[in-house]
Amino acid sequence: MMLTLYNTYSQQKEPFEPAQPGQITMYLCGPTVYNYIHIGNARSAAAFDTARRYFQYRGYQVHFVSNFTDLGDKVLQQAAKEELTEAALAEKYAQAFAADTAKLNILPADERPRASSYMAPMVTFVAALLDRGMAYEVNGNVYFKTKEFPDYGGLAHQNLAALTENAAGRLQNQEQDEKRDAADFALWKKEERPGVQAWPSPWGPGRPGWHLECSVMIDELFGQTIDIHAGGVDLTFPHHTNERAQSESRYNRPFVRYWLHNGFVNINDEKMSKSLDNFVTVHDLLTAGQDPLVLRYFLSKTHYRRPLSYSQEHLDQAGRELERLLRTARSLAAAKGNQESGSVAFQEQLALLQQRFEAAMDDDLNTENALTVLFDLATMGNKLLDSSDYAQVDVQAARSLLEEWLAIFGVANWQEVALTTTQQELLAERATARAAKDYVRSDAIRDQLAEAGILVRDTAEGQTVEYL
Ligand SMILES: [Zn+2]
Fold first, then answer.
1. pLDDT tens-digit profile of 395-433?
2. How many angstroms from the chain centroid is the CA of residue 3?
3. Are 155 and 240 in contact (CB under 8 A)?
4. Would you state the pLDDT for residue 149?
5. How far does the centroid of ligand 1 lie from the alpha carbon of residue 344, in Å?
6. Which has the closest alpha carbon to 153: 244, 257, 42?
7. Is-contact 213 69, C-beta < 8 A?
8. Residue 302 to residue 371: CA distance in whole angstroms
9. How many Å lie between the centroid of ligand 1 and the Cα of residue 90?
10. Any residues with CB less than 8 A from the CB of 417 and at least 6 apart, and which?
11. Average of pLDDT values for 225-251?
């Protein structure tokens, strides 16, 4: 079987072949760090974390980069509200992003570049486009000539004239007046307001346009055509369209081999949007007691290109599904087989499940079909344990497959035990008892915790706990 991915550029599923066999270069547009991330940001991060984990499962080495936009109008406005400097505000929400995504088991990117750290190469990039006649400067602002890039609309597959007209209506009049064509976009924006963050450039103090940031960070960190550029479908135009136009204009080589876009998030059947004021932040959800593992499962289970329909009802449903899988995972982890040799038929069934799982994920990361295979595996595992005679080798094989697949969905850390305060105190008391060589007491506490379903182990690093 071959891995296929839907490429927004070709609008087709294509066999996936990275430029270097066995290695994938991948970039995901990260958030502007001016607030807590909402479900839409989390969906993108979780969906492509699952993609990244599946690529690794398939044996690829993945070089994964995702940025922070730590400057611009949104940062500026929120910094004023919170009475922080722009840099302090960005730092605050970059840390919040790290905390929220860690709770959702989204692996940290190999690199998390921040736009503000790449000012010198951004200026160089703009200068190079001016040299090539692909850009022009007006009053300290620099614009890209979209008409000079022949395949400008190649990625978006939309009526760009209508879209740019719409966008132009929202722009400041000055920018409209300065642009030679309504579709041109700003590479560099003049900034002279006192107290507002700005960087020096040959065109005067200013800051980069948003699209420029990703182009430059991709070039600085990869220095070549990347295999996968990912992001929300709303970034196709203008963001990714403009990234592509400026990068290919500068380097005369393809910018990206495969464009992957995740679908929208609907909240209670309405599109999530600022104007509807129906943003749900991960921070608020978790603070209100939402189980992060259930949220992660919910974010990963819908196929990444489909709209994700968020509601409390759907979250609860996801919780019930996940519990079914985890119950089996716990039972398999606790099972002790009594037979010497495994069942050939059972092993064959497992091999068939594995083929089905991989076929589903190879088909443009079809997580929905892959999950049906996880539930079949859970059913098989439960049946095995219900039979009175089974071999540990079969338990082990089912268990390792299930855990490996749960990890792809970011929900394999169920072994991490949530102890009550009383249990934590007992554990601390047991450590003291052991240190005093009071093994009667320490064994009694161990037994007491075992009755509550918690297994205590003594390791070189101290006590560890897991579910029995
Ligand atoms: Zn980007």
1. 999 999 999 999 999 998 665 566 677 888 899 999 999
2. 20
3. yes
4. 95
5. 50
6. 244
7. yes
8. 10
9. 17
10. 454, 465, 466, 467
11. 97
CA of 397 to the centre of ligand 1 (A): 41
Distance 341 CA to ligand 1 centre (A): 54
pLDDT, mean over the chain: 92
Tally of CA atoms within 13 A in the half-sphere of 348 that contains its CB: 3
Q: What is the pLDDT of residue 353?
A: 98
Residue 111 Cα to ligand 1 midpoint, Å, equals 14
Distance 96 CA to ligand 1 centre (A): 20
Percent of the chain with pLDDT over 90: 80
φ, ψ dihedrals at 203, nearest 5°: -105, 10
How far away, in angstroms, is 239 Cα from ligand 1 center? 6
Q: How far is the CA of 255 from the centre of ligand 1 (A)?
A: 13
Q: DSSP letters of 244-295?
A: HHHHHHHHSS-SEEEEEEEPPEEETTEE--TTTT---BHHHHHHTT--HHHH
- The alpha carbon of 211 and the centre of ligand 1 are apart by a number of angstroms equal to 6
Strand duo 454-459 + 270-271: pairing: unpaired
Q: How much is the pLDDT for 275?
A: 65
- Alpha-carbon gap, residue 202 to 104, rounded angstroms: 43
Question: Whose CA is closest to 124, among 43, 230, 203?
Answer: 203
Centroid of ligand 1 to alpha carbon of 176 (angstroms): 23
Distance 309 CA to ligand 1 centre (A): 24
How many Å lie between the centroid of ligand 1 and the Cα of residue 25?
15
218-241: b (≥16 Cβ within 10 Å) or e? bbbbbeebbbbbbbbbebbbbbbb
Chain centroid to Cα 291, Å, comes to 18
Q: What is the pTM of this model?
A: 0.88
- What SS3 state is found at 24? strand
Distance (angstroms) between ligand 1 centre and the Cα of 71 equals 13
